[in-house]
Amino acid sequence: MTVVSSKEFAINEDKYFDLAMNEQVFLKKGDNMFVLTHSDIIQEDMVFQPDEDFHRSITIDELHRRVKENIHKWYRERNENYSITRS
Predict the structure, then answer these.
(1) Which domain holds residue 63?
(2) pLDDT in tens, the chain (87 residues)
(3) Less CB within 10 Å around the terminal CB: N or C of the chain?
(4) Is there a domain that residue 61 lies in?
């Protein structure tokens, strides 16, 4: 059994993941304690199951494109409004 601070864990993640393959590793953050454990078993409730909104999902590339378009649109509108009020 090993107890490690959250800061130490963040610095040496790989070390503690490897250690958790063979023993319990406890992560301590303030007054809270968390257990890092290894499991070869993937439980049904741990696997992502698409819900009714899944069909609305987009890729990160699509998100990037849309955000970029909105920024350009906002910038154009802002400049048009600035030109009108300045005239």
Answers:
(1) 54-87
(2) 899 999 999 999 999 999 999 999 999 999 999 999 887 776 666 667 778 888 888 899 999 999 999 999 999 888 887 766 665
(3) C
(4) yes
Contact 3, 28 (CB under 8 A): yes
Please state whether beta strands 25-29 and 32-36 pair in parallel, antiparallel, or not at all (unpaired): antiparallel
Question: CA-to-CA distance for 73 and 52, rounded, in angstroms?
Answer: 31
Residue 74 lies in a domain: yes
Q: Is residue 45 part of a domain?
A: no
pTM beyond cutoff 0.85: no
H or E element at residue 13:
helix 13-20
d(CA 38, CA 54): 30
The answer to whether residues 1 and 35 belong to one domain is yes
46: in domain: no
